[in-house]
Amino acid sequence: MLLHQKIKGLEDFFKRQSERKPKGVYFYRVNSYDETILEFIRKYYDLAKREGAIIDKNIENPTADNIAYFNEIIGDKYVHGPGFMAEALKKWLPRIKDYQRASIADGIYDTLEVLRRQGKNIDILKNNFIRIMCWLYYNFYNIMEKLGNDDVPKIIFWGNVNFSELSTLKILSNAGADIILVQPGGDSKYMAIDPKSEYSIDLGMGSESFPAGFDLQWLLKQYEEDKSKRLLYSNKSNAVANTNAWLSGDLFEDLKNTRRGENTRFFYNMFARINGCDNRNTYVNNLYLLYQDLKKANRSIKVINNKITNPSVDEIAKIKRGNYANENQLITDLKKNINLKSNTFVDVARDAFVDTMIETGKLMNMDLNKMMNKGIYILCWFQRYIPDLLGNTDIHSPAPILIYFGNVETDTESLFLNMAAKLPIDVIIFNPEKKEDKLTGERLYEVHFEETLKVNEYPTDGSNLSMGTMAYNAERDLDTMMYSDTGMYRDMQFSKANIIKLSTTYEEIGIYWKQEARFRPNFSTVDDIVNIPVMFAKISGVANSDTDTYFQNIKDLLTDTTLIYKNESIYGRNCTVAAGVPSFFKNGRLDREGIKHSQIYKYDYLRAETQDYILDKLSELLRRKTIAGTGQNGTEYKIITIVLDLPKEILRFIQSFDFTKCPPKLIIVNTTETVISLEDSIIVAFLNLIGFDIVFFIPTGYDNVSKYYNSQIMEEHIIGNYLFDIAIPDFNRLRSVKEKKKSFFSRLFG
Q1: For the chain, how many structural domains are there in total?
Q2: Given this model, what pLDDT does residue 741 score?
Q3: How many CA atoms lie within 13 A of 115 on its CB side?
Q4: How far is residue 166's CA from residue 152's CA, in Å, rounded to a whole number?
Q5: Putative component of 'biosynthetic module' domain: which residues (predicted)?
Q6: Of 226, 249, 283, which closes a domain?
């Protein structure tokens, strides 16, 4: 009899008996899941399939024919003792060795003795004896001779065992078999049978529950899918990557090193990231000198600063694709888009793309549409950067270099960089600010420095080279300490914002109107994005029919950052869709780069951050479909045209908008029956997303502001009677109540 031992690691299961210290067998329960557990189960299953036994859900009871054959060989007699059982085994399983027979006989006796002590009669003991003997013969016959050998046979049981099954497995384990119970439903049913875990041990590994539907059929399906995935690859080994194994650790010198290894089967490349900087006073200069050294060595270099810009409409149009029934069809077809001058690298690149798309499938939960979208992006970026890098490269030439400068913001960028690193290309990422990002990869080599430095882009041009003095860098450190998570903000600190609708009473509009955003309820900053609470309201009627007070209240809302329109249009002209606009919005996506490079683009004089912010909010307005008709009758093109043609006074307010301070204002006073135009409705909805406080004053109470909106996007406050045909005064001449001249009696008596 072999003793049950505890493993030190999963690899112990695959050691021969002579390699185990101490010697013994393993009987474990698997109750939880992760990728490591999945790989273990798959490897264990392979061994059980070749030299063991696999039980799916239960061991079927012997049939009448099985029992009849047993009685023919053993007879109808039953004696409750290990001697009888050993003799029966000699007839029933004549090929097993004596020591195996003794161990199994003792195990059967111990199992039946438990039942006898529970008060079971001799007939029940006999029936259980026959069941166990039949199971050994019909379900485990092929491992009986292997029990106790140096190569330990494997048994895998999938599901929940009953007492008889567990007892039989224990008999086989004691005789020399490794056993795992895979329990996707957890351990509760098992513990009802063996509450002290005397028969088996809980593996206690895995970080989550098994996924729904995880059973033996699921595993077999995975095998078939893996088999079909292998067919996606070229299976050519004329160019094999040796990534990072040759590194010395000094990545600057390693990049310049062109003698990396002697084995001609490999191409030697680098996939590395440097976080932070070792010396802020010399960092930028060192980067510039590195670039110059690499150029002098005739190394081909591409530099990506801060992020990989989205593919243009033209780039996407060049990617050939179709309709696919499954993941493998999609990958097989999309990889045909990869073509290079050197046939040596085509198969390497296509195989790298297959790896990338399989990983994409895991991220996207096998959603074919999402997989295809990411695949198209990756192919567009491949065509943008890789063919030029590999254009004149032999497998043994010094590797071209792809430099990514900044933090990797998206999973798609991470996938692309991992794919590029599987080609004969050095891929190096510089992240001097040490910002957290999306880049991960088992093959990624990382270097970490304590110091950080804000650098806008990789220095490739000496004429634009800028380096900070020690005092300058110290000032930046102080700046960081003062304005990071302190509730204090420097001017124009943030370049992105989200809008939160601030629901208020009518009276609270006056309270919050002139208040800085950072002091309003629900203001916050998360990941360098400001959440701005703004007001968007319609005021209907006139309180107490008092027009003097009504207009005085409006005047009190006027500030230096307030635009007011009185019975007039904001846009002021008829809108015709500008030429080329339809090409800016396709498949629900705004082509930002196409817009910036078009002739109709007028905003290039604004700060780059402001331009990006405007395009972000334009994209959001289109995505939300706030304006009726968006995506149906060409209204989306009118929206783009109007947002790209805003009045100058509005652009100035957007340009100077500091998100933590008082938001700019828009007041529209309409005392007529005129319905706000589509053009003005677009501008109002857009400025709401920008972060303007917006208030409509409608004394008539007419519903003349919501015609072109798909939903109620503003609050309405009815404050009094509806009044008609009232004249709007000149607010510049309207004297504040506190400025009005007091009467004689007022002055006399205070």
Answers
A1: 4
A2: 47
A3: 18
A4: 19
A5: 42-200, 258-483, 504-718
A6: 226
530 and 550 in one domain? yes
Structure tokens at 465: 């080279």
pLDDT tens-digit profile of 248-275? 999 999 999 988 988 888 889 999 999 9
Which tokens belong to 746?
Answer: 């007022």
Between CA 741 and CA 739 the distance in angstroms is: 6
Q: How far apart are CA 492 and CA 656, in angstroms?
A: 8
How many Cβ atoms are within 10 Å of 51's Cβ, its own excluded? 15
Cβ neighbours of residue 303 under 8 Å, at least 6 residues apart? Answer: 403, 405, 457, 458, 460
Residue pair 609/615 in contact (Cβ under 8 Å)? The answer is: no
Domain that holds residue 410: 240-448
Longest dimension (CA), the chain: 130
Residue 186 and residue 73 in one domain: yes
Q: What is the pTM of this model?
A: 0.48
Task: Give me the phi and psi of 498, to 5 degrees please.
Answer: -110, 150
- Please choose, from the candidates 736, 700, 702, 737, the residue with its C-alpha nearest in 3D space to the C-alpha of residue 720: 700
- Domain annotation covers residue 553: yes
CA-CA distance, 242 to 69, in Å (whole number)?
61
Whether 172 and 144 have beta carbons less than 8 Å apart is answered as no
Segments of the chain scoring below 70 in pLDDT = 1, 223-228, 237-238, 392-396, 462-488, 490, 736-750
Burial 642-677 (b: 16+ CB within 10 A, else e): bbbbbeeebbebbbebbbbbbbbbbbbbbbeeebbb
> Per residue in 380-404, pLDDT tens?
999 999 999 987 666 667 889 999 9
| Residue that the structure tokens 């005739």 belong to | 298
**Bridge partners, residue 301, by sequence:** 401
- Residue 470 covered by a domain: yes
Predicted pLDDT of residue 218 = 76
